[in-house]
Amino acid sequence: MGLMASFFTSVVAASKRGGSALKAFVSKVASKLVAAKEKVRRYRLFTKTKQARLELLEEMAKLVETTQVHLGKALAAGEASKDRLIGYGKVAHTKAVQLHETMKTLLPQIRYWLRTGWVAKDKIINLHIPELYAIVRGKVGKAVEFGLQWGIARLRGGYLLATMAADRRQLVDARFVVRAVHDHIALFGQAPRAFAYDRAGHSAQNIATLQDLGVKQVGLAPRGQTQWSVSGKVKEQLVKERAQVEGGIGTLKCTKYGFNRPAARSTAMMGACGQRAVLGFNLNKLIRELAARNEVALVG
Questions:
Q1: What is the pLDDT of residue 154?
Q2: Which one of 88, 105, 214, 290 is at 20 to 30 Å from 193 when CA atoms are compared?
């Protein structure tokens, strides 16, 4: 219901400044907008049973479907004159097109859920940034998170490197364990001497691949009764280094750096906010280490 309500609110706001065809569209669907507001009000305040909620959702979906038809016609009618739009008019027209295209995918997903009770594959969770997705974490208090996946690598010394996934399958642990070393080689010209990762990235193939890339000490935590590929003090050191990654990630997510819940309206901006947070973390660490040297005095 929240996504459909947001669709009505956003498409009206964009259409009012997106050209004459879209303004006419707002006038044509005015009664549907009033009906949609009433259904949202009833859904949130007065509907108590599951069956009643489902019925309201079905009615709301029909309103969205009808509005989509009118919006498509308005966009087609305004196609010839969109080049004459200036300033925010262009932005508003582009936003209306984006909302129309997103709802083409979202509405069938909503109907699938109403029909089966199951969430559709690749379900859209944000009307304005449809690239976002649900990430199943399986942790206490965080069964599911919403956003984009990141791969975080920690260099010895505590500095962090961040990689944003282009899609939800790109940086799964079994792949990122190798991707992280490739990124290290691209940045520094050679593979790290030692590399540690948790058991989600463990496999005989990954160990062999990392060794072929030039990693001398591969410390992938084994699954089950499998033996470590390192031992003794090397194993102990790699386990300690790996444990500190979570601390760095936790620090990034604090309000100081803004990695978590960034004020972004696109995936590109979310990527920029994430890298800015990592840069701030690394710069702060660098300054603290410089200040710790006896021969350096920092003034400001």
A1: 92
A2: 290
